[in-house]
Design brief:
Layout lengths: L1 E8 L2 H5 L6 E7 L3 E8 L9 H19 L3 H10 L1 H26 L4 H4 L4 H5 L11 E7 L3 E6 L3 E6 L4 E2 L26 E5 L4 E7 L1 H4 L5 H13 L4 H15 L8 E8 H6 L1 H25 L1
Antiparallel strand pairs: 1-10, 2-3, 3-4, 4-5, 5-8, 6-7, 6-9, 9-10
């Protein structure tokens, strides 16, 4: 019933500066659910282990979702009764597991002289250890009777419905108060998560991506149309997947030239059934894009 994919590519700006990829991504598929998760380690200097933090966040997410889904019927009953309470419990558990993972890493890998180098002693002492590993987190879960997701920090979630419509179910605004970076390393992280739930419309696919993908497009329309194109190729994903990675790598040369992570969870039976609907939607979107471009040129 379910399938998925996930990929991370290093950004051109990181290649030029000889930096590691700070993004991480993964997916999990089984008979009960599919998960698509991405994480974007922060780039500022105090988050110097953010690539480890993002990988740990992805691991913590998959472990936590699996734990909650251990009894699928019980989980779904509780979720449908109070989705906000269950989702908040998942978020809290992810934070706990993530903190355990990074503290274990820190214990086994003490801070090196090179890592301390950019800071004065006073500056370094003021950095909370969790901040070394700071990262965003974006999660989408597709189940049999409902789908849900949540995120902290920037990045995007996109849902594709059975009529080919694409939407971003979580509003594209800052989840953190002014001057606060939304991150799972924050002491108030649990209050910075945003979530969504979908159970009223048939859903084909859920996509998660770090902000490097979004900034490579010129508009929301172009960004959403891209997801329709990808969705239309899901029936033949094994053949098409290398092209997705190639396009992601190409897109790291646009926008912020940042790392890009892209992950998907989808209903393979419904995607196959609606294949022509998606093909028709791609053609419709192309026509609308041409009309938008013509109107823009006429105004110039």
């Amino acid at each position: 019933m379910f399938n998925g994919f996930s990929h991370s590519v290093i950004g051109q700006s990181h290649v030029l500066r000889n930096l590691v990829c700070q993004d991480s991504s993964s997916h999990e598929v089984n008979e009960n659910y599919a998960v698509a998760v991405v994480a974007d380690g922060h780039g500022s200097k105090k988050h110097f282990r953010s690539h480890i933090g993002s990988a740990s966040a992805v691991e913590a997410t998959l472990e936590t979702i699996a734990k909650f889904y251990k009894d699928p019927d019980d989980f779904e009953e509780k979720f449908l009764r109070d989705s906000r309470l269950v989702t908040r419990s998942i978020e809290k558990q992810i934070l706990c597991v993530w903190n355990d993972k990074i503290m274990k890493h820190l214990e086994e890998n003490p801070i090196t002289r090179e890592e301390r180098g950019p800071f004065t002693l006073d500056e370094f002492d003021k950095i909370p250890p969790a901040s070394y590993y700071g990262t965003t987190l974006i999660v989408a879960v597709m189940g049999k009777n409902f789908s849900f997701g949540f995120q902290i920090g920037d990045g995007s979630l996109v849902a594709v419905y059975d009529d080919g419509e694409t939407v971003m179910p979580i509003e594209d605004d800052e989840s953190a108060p002014a001057n606060v970076t939304a991150s799972i390393c924050n002491s108030n992280a649990i209050g910075l998560f945003k979530m969504f739930r979908i159970d009223s419309r048939p859903l084909l696919a859920l996509f998660t991506s770090t902000d490097g993908l979004y900034t490579s497009f010129g508009s929301d329309n172009d960004f959403l149309d891209y997801h329709t194109i990808i969705a239309s190729q899901l029936p033949d994903i094994e053949t098409f997947e290398p092209s997705i990675v190639k396009n992601m790598t190409k897109r790291t040369h646009f926008g912020t030239e940042d790392d890009i992570s892209f992950s998907c969870a989808y209903n393979k039976d419904l995607v196959a059934e609606k294949a022509q609907v998606l093909v028709d939607k791609v053609a419709e979107n192309k026509q609308k894009a041409a009309e938008r471009k013509a109107k823009l040129l006429n105004r110039m």
